[in-house]
Amino acid sequence: MSSLLPPDKDGGNRLSVLEGDTSSGEECRTYVFRKENHTLGNCLRTMLLKNPQVQFAGYTIPHPSEDVMHLRIQTVEGYPAQSALRKAFVDLKTHASQLKTKFVTAVDNFEKEES
Fold first, then answer.
1. Count H helices, E strands: the chain?
2. Are 57 and 73 in contact (CB under 8 A)?
3. What is the spatial distance between Cα 65 and Cα 59, in angstroms, rounded to a whole number?
């Protein structure tokens, strides 16, 4: 496995890439996330599937007692899976920021109406 990120404080890598079939090129990859679960898996899968250049995106938790999530991405030819993953993270961050802004605004409006 090759690492994408620096080691976390425990000394292990939180994200790595499973070495796969070399004939599939950069368009088909499985990423292994440690210390993550369905929350991030489903969010990333949703963001990936909104990208028209992503043909397949799915995640699995191999075993409930393991703290590991596998995310599989397959993209159109010429668009690397890693680029799709990076875009999904950016899109997720943007979406979360917008959701937070709407929530704070709604809470402020509610508190004004109650007072």
1. 2, 5
2. yes
3. 16
For the chain, give the number of residues.
Answer: 115
pTM of the model: 0.82
Strand order in the sheet with 54-60: 2-3, 15-18, 28-34, 68-75, 54-60
**Do residues 86 and 73 touch, judged by C-beta distance below 8 A?**
no
Residue 32 burial (CB count, 10 A): 18
* Cβ(75)–Cβ(84) below 8 Å: yes
Which tens digits make up the pLDDT trace of 70-82?
A: 999 999 999 999 9
Q: Is 21 exposed, middle or buried (0-12, 13-18, 19+ CB in 10 A)?
A: exposed
Q: Which of 15, 81, 26 is nearest to 53 (CA)?
A: 81
